[in-house]
Amino acid sequence: MKALVVAGGMPQITLIEELKARGIETVLVDGAPNPLARPYADKFFQINVFDIEGVKKIAQDEHVDFAITVCADQVLLVVAQVAEDLGLPWYIDYATAKLVSDKALMKQVFVEKGIPTSRHVVLPALDEAAVAHLRYPLIVKPVDAYSSKGVKKVRTPAELRTAFGEAQAIGRSPNVIVEEFFEGEEISVDLFVEGGRAHVLCISNSDKVRDADHFAIFRGKFPVHASEALKAEIGKVCQQIAEAFRLENGPMLVQMLTDGTELTVLEFCARTGGAMKWLLVQHASGVDVIQGVIDLTLGLEPDIRVRPPENRYIANDFIYCRPGVFDRLDGFDEQLRRGTISDYRLLRPRGWSFSGTIASSTDRVAGFTVQADTLEEFNRKHREFVRSVRVLDTGGQDIMRHDLLPDLAG
Description:
The chain is α+β, with helices and mostly antiparallel strands. The chain has helices at 10-21, 52-61, 75-86, 94-101, 103-112, 157-170, 228-244, 277-285, 289-297, 332-338, 375-388, and strands at residues 2-6, 25-30, 43-46, 66-68, 120-123, 138-142, 152-154, 176-180, 185-194, 197-209, 216-222, 249-258, 263-269, 313-320, 324-330, 343-346, 353-354, 364-372, 390-393. It contains 11 helices and 19 strands.
């Protein structure tokens, strides 16, 4: 068998390795000349993955048996369209993928089906009269971007005008969402839908770097800070979403905000969590969601039995940098050998230029996982790691933002 793997980031490395372990040849397509996953694939083509006709031609020329991706928001839509046009297997049809990939269409369904979400408007051009009924501060976001790109909090009409233009420049669609800001903790819910039932795998908190009112995540942490009643409500809302979008089988990621009592849904997608999220899910539930996606695509039944978490405290932390050109990580392997961390992943290739701005998850250089059974042990391991490692630029200087990695609060 032969698979077309669309997008070549860090999660696709694991996807390719799992496919090859099953004896499946892999053809990778990505817009970058040297994506992280390129050395792992049997064959590579550099192409804009949103060039549907170009991707389809490669799939046809290579005689692939299926197309696949994981942990990639907008790429889900590409795979759905290629699979549908070529009659290849995939767990979601194009029409549904369109609904879950376009935040404007998604919000429309939320409102129609009574799913809690912030008051908002969708505009192809800024009309200040159309947002006059919304209460500042506001959140501005493109309808079809990912990794928090173009998402910004604004407090005044002047800031709104600037953020609106920036969001339009990032998105492929001219439409922009303007919504009321909801003050609360962010909750991330990973699920797997089986026969229309949404099984909760992992509920975690997403801690964000609030730098210049952008919302880049620096930590995903388990267990979630929520009461049992709130957890039950989270499960109920997620099932509502699965039913509203008629999802039958496949992964699902829902992002919410809560003030401890009320919930509001930011957005969701029928995919596995990005970056290292699938690892957090695996450590917390024993479910391998990447294997699950492969199984579904091959017509097999995924194993989504939830097991006890490996540890009481589990967190994926992400590392950001000061300005510089990335050369290498220093000390990471030693900390892994010592058991201070349970894994780490490089998220950007050597030679990547960092501006020092922290606007989205693409500004991360790497991520790591710390696990422990007590808060004291967790923070001891975490402090040792942060103190012992460096991210070196081409001049040998440490450009790692050590200051953005605080202890885990109780």
